[in-house]
């Protein structure tokens, strides 16, 4: 994405922009400014990655953006600092409790990936989720450097933070799928 980037619809109708990318690129103010200009009414939400999936390829050193506009649903965001890995459970609870539980259907969570106890964060999230509300998410990465990871939610990239977007609406249906394992590829030995 450069200064000549063009965006297709939904433009001003977008309520949420998911932006994932190379940790060095997301710290460049110009890129976030372009996104905010193209989608002025949207929450900009995402994290640094170890590679970006664009179509059938995994790329490195890019930004991947998805803009979403809902007809009958809306979103809200929350953020919680993670003071240290020992405070991960509390951060997970605090994050979820910031979202209005009325009409909440699903929560998508992203967290800083290095200074967090992921199991405790997840336990805190699950302890605070209202009955019947599902959650999904992941952890930020910085490729193979393991030095610093970032999340962003309506602002500049942050470290030591967990963020969430809550999805609301009676007509909204969320599906989740989890798989495991490896599939062989390449030449046989």
Describe the protein's architecture and organization.
With 189 residues, the protein is α+β, with helices and mostly antiparallel strands. It has a single domain, classed as 60s Ribosomal Protein L30, Chain: A, CATH 3.30.1330. It has four helices and ten strands. A four-stranded mixed sheet has the order 5-1-2-9. Strand 7, helix 4 and strand 8 form a beta-alpha-beta unit. Helix 3 packs parallel to helix 4. The protein is globular. The termini are far apart. The relative contact order is 0.21.
What ranges have pLDDT less than 50 throughout 5 or more consecutive residues? none
- The CATH topology turns out to be 60s Ribosomal Protein L30, Chain: A
Tertiary shape: globular
| Proportion of strand residues | 25-35%
Domain count, please report it.
1
Major sheet attributes: 4 strands, mixed
Helix and strand element order: EHHEEEEEHEHEEE
Helix/strand/pairing class, anyone? alpha+beta
Mean pLDDT: 88
CATH architecture: 2-Layer Sandwich
Quickly count the helices.
4
Over the alpha carbons, how many angstroms does the gyration radius reach?
17 Å
- The helical percent reads 10-25%
Q: What is the name of the CATH class?
A: Alpha Beta
Alpha-carbon distance between the termini? 41 Å
Secondary structure tally: strands = 10
């Amino acid at each position: 994405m450069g200064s000549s980037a063009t965006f297709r619809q939904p433009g001003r109708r977008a309520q949420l922009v998911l932006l994932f990318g190379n940790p060095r690129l997301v710290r460049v103010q110009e890129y976030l400014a372009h996104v905010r200009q193209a989608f002025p009414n949207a929450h900009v939400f995402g994290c640094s990655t170890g590679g970006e999936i664009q179509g059938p390829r995994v790329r490195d050193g890019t930004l991947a953006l998805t803009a979403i506009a809902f007809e009958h649903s809306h979103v809200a965001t929350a953020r919680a600092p993670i003071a240290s890995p020992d405070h991960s459970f509390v951060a997970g609870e605090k994050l979820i409790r910031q979202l209005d539980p009325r009409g909440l259907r699903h929560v998508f969570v992203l967290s800083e990936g290095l200074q967090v106890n992921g199991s405790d964060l997840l336990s805190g999230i699950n302890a605070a989720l209202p009955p019947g509300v599902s959650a999904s998410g992941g952890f930020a990465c910085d490729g193979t450097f393991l030095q610093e990871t970032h999340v962003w939610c309506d602002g500049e990239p942050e470290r030591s933070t967990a963020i969430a977007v809550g999805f609301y609406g009676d007509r909204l249906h969320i599906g989740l799928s989890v798989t495991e394992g490896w599939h062989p590829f390449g030449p046989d030995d």
